[in-house]
Design a protein that fits this description.
Strand order of the largest sheet: 1-2-12-9-14-7-6-3-5
Shape: globular
Number of strands: 14
Distance between the termini: 49 Å
Mean pLDDT: 94
Radius of gyration: 22 Å
Oligomer: single chain
Strand content: 15-25%
Helix content: 25-40%
Length: 333
């Protein structure tokens, strides 16, 4: 696991970190943020800081009984969830989190993935990262008592910055997906599918392949002021281990050329290909490898670049050309 100390500018991020598509721990990256300095003084100082930005919006809080010990997950047999969702103004959620932090035997309370520009407008101007471009990055806040978020992946690249408390990330590489026993894609806790095996008791006989994933796990402990760069599609469970915890994260697509997301393409490929005969799927895999994954290099490397046509660089107008044709076909044209 790679670790870096100190500041990180955009040039260094793009040259030294992003191309590897691997997690990197960035010690002390956000220790000088106003919110981090407030948290270092006291929880009440941090809450007072947040109150100055509070827009009064209603948030959805996860609330769990003491029996779940802050482990938000499915109920038995995927029959619902082991927590409830309660809508309340953010200030009320923070007050409940504050009270529950002093009473670990009480219910756990957690608000997550709140867009900062909606809930804490102005906060983002004082809490930036030099490695990220302005305007293209979505900033979110996560605040709660001690809790565990089930193992999942995101379809965006992520900087996760600890403001208060401590976070433990358990990471699995994208190609561990087959050993993680992933749950439904359309019945989830917070939008993304989760690993059923990673939340199960050790050596659960229902998930024999999980042992292979567990052997590849990377455990990262973050203190206040630390950050984790987590590329898209890396699986991660997140434990907030202090009585009171706050994390700010930044989601964006480091390599996007246009508005179309790889996950959208995967879902379209799934309905177009997944239930075709095995031999036909194998044929399409060869074409995906050739044109999309380019396992043998550019598909027209044997021709001069001037003859590459729509397979030339996407940024030189070919993105729009191909997209227009795809949209025409999707409309039945």
């Amino acid at each position: 696991m790679i670790e870096r100390d100190g500041p990180l500018d955009r040039a260094a991020f793009l040259a030294e970190i992003a191309p590897a598509c691997a997690p990197v721990v960035l010690r002390g990256l956000c220790r000088d943020w106003p919110a981090a300095r407030a948290a270092a003084r006291s929880r009440q100082t941090l809450l007072a800081c947040l109150e100055t930005f509070d827009s009064g919006q209603v948030a959805e809080a996860f609330v769990g009984t003491a029996a779940i010990a802050g482990r938000y997950d499915y109920a038995a047999d995927l029959d619902g969830f082991n927590f409830v969702r309660e809508a309340m103004p953010l200030r009320d959620a923070l007050a409940r989190i504050d009270a529950a932090a002093d009473a670990p035997e009480s219910a756990s309370v957690y608000v997550g993935s709140l867009p900062v520009e909606r809930y804490l407008p102005g906060f983002e101007r004082e809490h930036r990262l030099a490695a990220l471009p302005d305007g293209a990055v979505r900033q979110h806040v996560w605040i709660g008592t001690a809790s565990t978020v089930a193992c999942h992946y995101d379809t965006f690249d992520n900087f996760a910055c600890v403001v208060a408390g401590r976070r433990r990330f358990t990471l699995y590489p994208p190609d561990a997906i087959g050993d993680l026993y992933v749950g439904p894609i359309d019945f989830t806790m917070a939008g993304q599918p989760t690993s059923l095996a990673a939340s199960a008791p050790p050596d659960d006989p229902r998930y024999p392949r999980f042992a292979a994933a567990r052997a590849r796990a990377i455990v990262v402990d973050l203190e206040p002021g630390d950050a984790l760069y987590l590329p898209k599609l890396w699986w991660h469970s997140v434990e907030a281990t202090a009585p009171f915890n706050m994390l700010v994260n930044f989601w964006w697509d480091a390599f996007a050329i246009g508005p179309d997301a790889p996950y959208t393409a995967m879902l379209l490929a799934m309905i177009a290909i997944a239930e075709r005969p095995e031999r036909e799927r194998a044929a399409w895999r060869a074409y995906f490898d050739h044109y999309v994954f380019r396992t043998q290099g550019h598909p027209l490397a044997h021709l001069p670049e001037a003859k590459h046509g729509a397979l030339g660089p996407l940024a030189q107008g070919n993105y729009g050309r191909i997209r227009a044709q795809v949209m025409k076909w999707l409309r039945g044209g």
